[in-house]
Write a structure and sequence with these properties.
CATH architecture of the largest domain in chain B: 3-Layer(aba) Sandwich
Strand content of chain B: 15-25%
Distance between the termini of chain A: 33 Å
Largest interface: A-B, 20 and 26 residues
CATH topology of chain A: Rossmann fold
CATH class of the largest domain in chain B: Alpha Beta
Radius of gyration of chain A: 17 Å
Shape of chain A: globular
Oligomer: heterodimer
Shape of chain B: globular
Largest sheet of chain B: 8 strands, mixed
CATH architecture of chain A: 3-Layer(aba) Sandwich
CATH superfamily of the largest domain in chain B: Alpha/Beta hydrolase fold, catalytic domain
Helix content of chain A: 25-40%
Strand order of the largest sheet of chain A: 3-2-1-4-5-8-6-7
Helix content of chain B: 25-40%
Order of helices and strands of chain B: EEEEEEEEEEHEHEHHHHHHEHEHH
Number of strands of chain A: 8
Structural class of chain B: alpha/beta
CATH topology of the largest domain in chain B: Rossmann fold
C-alpha cells in the first residue's frame, strides 16, 4: 500500500486509489482515536492503524462490508450512521471521519452535530454538487444531472442530500463550527480558485 | 490433533447462593500448545447441553467435538497458533461436579440437594482452572448462547484476565421468552413420575419428561425456514396419514429421535440446574446498569448474532454492543445472515470463521 510520489506541485497522491484518503492520511495525527462513519470494508482504517498506529473503529450499514472489515482485523459495527453515534460518550474520539457519505444520510446536520459531539474534530469529504459539470448537465439537459461524480439515475441514487462547497461553508458558519483546514480536489489536483465551481470533492477539517 | 482429556479436583467453591460445594471436580480438554509467554490461551465455553469435548475426536467415544468445525489446525480457533481450553460447566453431567455426582457427605448422588448455581459460579470455577493451569490472561473467552453469557461474565468479573471476548448468539440477560421456554422444559421433567423429586439415580430415568424438554429445545434452536427446508410437511416412511398418533411427519420423527437420544447423554437434574442458572443470568444484577457492569473491562469484543435466531434475537446482542459503545469499548458487531436459527453458530460457520480468524489475529498481534 505505497502511495505514489507527488509529480508536480498541486498534484495530490492517492491512498488506496483515492485522493481524499490521501488527505485524511495526512491530517490524522499518529496514535489517535479515529472513528470512520460509513467505513466500507475498513481499508482506510486498516491503513491508519498500520501506518499511524491509531485506535481505529468503524460504523457500516452493509453486513457484508462489516464482515470483510472485521475479517481484516478492524473493529467495525453494523449500524445506520443516522443512529449509530448516540451511544458514544462526548469527545470519545480525536477524529470522526465522514467520507463521501454525508450526502447519503437522512439527517446530515444532525449527523455532523453528533460527529462533533463524539469527536474532537471531524473530517468531512463530499462530492461537490456545485461543480461546473453538474451545472452544465442540468442546464443543457433539463434533467436530473448525471456526471462521472454523480453517476446515478435520480430514482436509484443513494445521494439524497446533495450539497455544494458553499452550502457546507454556510452551514458551518451558521452552526459556529471552525473549519481548520479545507482541501479542494479535481481528479488528482488541488483546486486553487473558484472551488465551488471547479472542485469535484471538498475535504474539511472541522471542530466545534 | 491430540485431544487431552483431564479432570482436576479443587477443595471447594463458594456459590452466589451462599452454599458451598466441596470438593469440586472439573473435566476439561485442551488443544494446541501453550506458548512460552502464555499469551495464546483461548477459553471456549459451551452452550447448555455441551461438554468439555469441543474439538477433535474423542479417544473414548470416537465422536468429534461440538465445535470441531471451528477449532483445529487452520480453523477459526487455529490450534497451530492458539492453545484452546474447554471445560464442562459446574452443574453439568459430563465430568464436572453436578447433581448426578456423588455427595461425599452422604455417599449418594446430590440430586436435588445440589445447591442452585449461577453463570457467575460456573465462571469462578473456570477461573480456578485457568489459575491452576498457570495462565494469568486469556487471549480470548468465547462461546455461543450460554457460552456467550459466560464469556460476558468473564469480561465483567475478571477484567484483568481477559484480553478479548467473543459472545455469539447470546445475551446479557435472559428474557421472559427465554425463561418461559426453560420453564416448559423443567415442568416436563418434573411432571414425569420417574423424576421422583430428583431421586431416580439407579432406577428408571425420567426419560419421557427429559425427551419432551429436549423436543421443545430443538424447536427453539431452529427457524421456521430451516424446518420448512429440512422437513416441510413430508411424511416419514409412508404415503398416507396413519389416522393415529404414531409418527406421521418427518418433523415428529426428528424431534422424537433427538429427544430420546438426549436421554442417553444428559442428566435430567442437570437440565433443571443449568437452565435455572441461565434464567438467573443478568449482567446488571448487583452492578446497576449494563454500562456500569462493563466499567472495569478493557477487553476488545467481537459480538455476532444471526438473522434467523429468534431465541437469542439480534436486539439482545445490539443491547450489549450499545452498552459497550457507551463505555467506549473496542467492539465489533455484525448480524450474519443465516437460515439456521439459534443453531447457526454451530452449523453455519463459514462467515463466522472469517470474522473470528481476523479478529483473533489482530488481537493477538496487539497483545504481544
Amino acid at each position: 500500500m505505497t502511495a505514489t510520489t507527488p509529480k508536480r506541485s498541486g498534484f495530490v497522491r492517492e491512498l488506496l486509489g483515492r485522493s481524499d484518503y490521501a488527505i485524511m492520511g495526512e491530517i490524522v495525527e499518529p496514535k489517535t482515536r479515529v472513528l470512520d462513519l460509513g467505513c466500507g470494508e475498513g481499508e482506510l482504517l486498516q491503513w491508519l492503524a498500520e501506518n499511524k498506529g491509531v485506535d481505529a473503529r468503524g460504523v457500516e450499514i452493509s453486513g457484508l462490508k462489516v464482515q470483510r472489515a472485521i475479517a481484516r482485523g478492524v473493529s467495525v459495527f453494523q449500524s445506520d450512521i443516522d443512529e449509530g453515534l448516540a451511544d458514544y460518550p462526548d469527545q470519545a474520539f480525536d477524529y470522526v471521519i465522514l467520507s463521501q457519505t454525508l450526502q447519503e444520510t437522512r439527517h446530515p446536520r444532525q449527523v455532523l452535530r453528533e460527529m462533533l459531539r463524539v469527536g474532537r474534530r471531524g473530517i468531512v469529504a463530499f462530492p461537490n454538487f456545485g461543480h461546473w459539470r453538474m451545472r452544465l448537465a442540468m442546464l443543457l439537459s433539463g434533467r436530473a444531472p448525471r456526471t462521472p461524480l454523480f453517476p446515478y439515475a435520480w430514482h436509484e441514487s443513494p445521494n439524497i442530500h446533495l450539497l455544494t462547497i458553499e452550502d457546507f461553508e454556510e452551514l458551518a458558519r451558521a452552526e459556529g463550527w471552525a473549519i481548520e483546514r479545507r482541501y479542494f480536489l479535481a481528479r488528482h489536483r488541488k483546486v486553487a480558485i473558484w472551488p465551488n465551481l471547479l472542485a469535484e470533492v471538498g475535504v474539511f477539517l472541522v471542530r466545534r | 490433533m491430540i485431544v487431552q482429556s483431564n479432570v482436576v479436583r479443587f477443595d471447594g467453591i463458594s456459590l452466589d447462593s451462599g452454599a458451598t460445594i466441596a470438593p469440586v471436580e472439573m473435566a476439561y480438554e485442551t488443544y494446541g500448545e501453550l506458548n512460552a509467554a502464555k499469551s495464546n490461551a483461548i477459553l471456549v465455553l459451551h452452550a447448555f447441553s455441551g461438554d468439555a469435548h469441543a474439538a477433535g475426536v474423542s479417544p473414548e467415544t470416537g465422536k468429534p467435538g461440538w465445535w470441531d468445525n471451528m477449532i483445529g489446525p487452520g480453523k477459526a480457533f487455529d490450534t497451530n497458533k492458539y492453545f484452546v481450553i474447554c471445560s464442562n460447566v459446574l452443574g453439568g453431567c459430563r465430568g464436572t461436579t453436578g447433581p448426578s455426582s456423588i455427595n461425599p457427605a452422604t455417599g449418594c448422588p446430590y440430586a436435588m440437594s445440589f445447591p442452585v448455581i449461577t453463570i457467575g459460579d460456573m465462571v469462578r470455577l473456570q477461573k480456578m482452572l485457568i489459575d491452576w493451569l498457570g495462565i494469568s490472561r486469556l487471549l480470548s473467552v468465547t462461546g455461543g448462547s450460554m457460552g456467550g453469557m459466560q464469556a460476558l461474565e468473564w469480561a465483567v468479573a475478571f477484567p484483568d484476565s481477559v484480553v478479548s471476548a467473543i459472545p455469539i448468539a447470546s445475551t446479557s440477560r435472559h428474557s421472559a421468552q427465554q425463561i418461559a421456554f426453560n420453564e416448559v422444559g423443567r415442568q416436563a421433567i418434573m411432571a414425569d413420575p420417574d423424576w421422583n423429586n430428583g431421586n431416580y439415580y439407579g432406577g428408571a430415568l425420567p426419560a419421557r419428561g427429559l425427551a419432551v424438554a429436549r423436543m421443545v429445545g430443538h424447536i427453539t434452536y431452529m427457524s421456521d425456514d430451516s424446518m420448512r427446508e429440512k422437513f416441510g410437511r413430508r411424511l416419514k416412511g409412508k404415503e398416507n396419514f396413519s389416522f393415529g398418533f404414531d409418527v406421521d411427519f418427518e418433523v415428529e420423527g426428528y424431534l422424537r429421535y433427538r429427544g430420546s437420544q438426549f436421554v442417553g447423554r444428559f442428566d435430567a437434574n442437570s437440565y433443571l440446574y443449568i437452565t435455572k442458572a441461565m434464567d438467573y443470568f443478568d449482567l446488571t444484577t448487583g452492578r446497576g446498569s449494563l454500562a456500569a457492569a462493563l466499567e472495569k473491562t478493557n477487553a476488545r469484543f467481537l459480538v455476532i448474532s444471526f438473522s434467523s435466531d429468534w431465541l437469542y434475537p439480534s436486539y439482545q446482542s445490539q443491547e450489549m454492543v450499545r452498552a459497550l459503545r457507551s463505555r467506549n469499548c473496542d467492539v465489533a458487531y455484525v448480524e450474519l445472515q443465516s437460515n439456521y436459527g439459534h443453531d447457526s453458530f454451530l452449523v453455519d460457520v463459514a462467515e463466522q470463521t472469517d470474522l473470528v480468524r481476523g479478529f483473533l489475529a489482530n488481537t493477538f498481534e496487539k497483545a504481544q
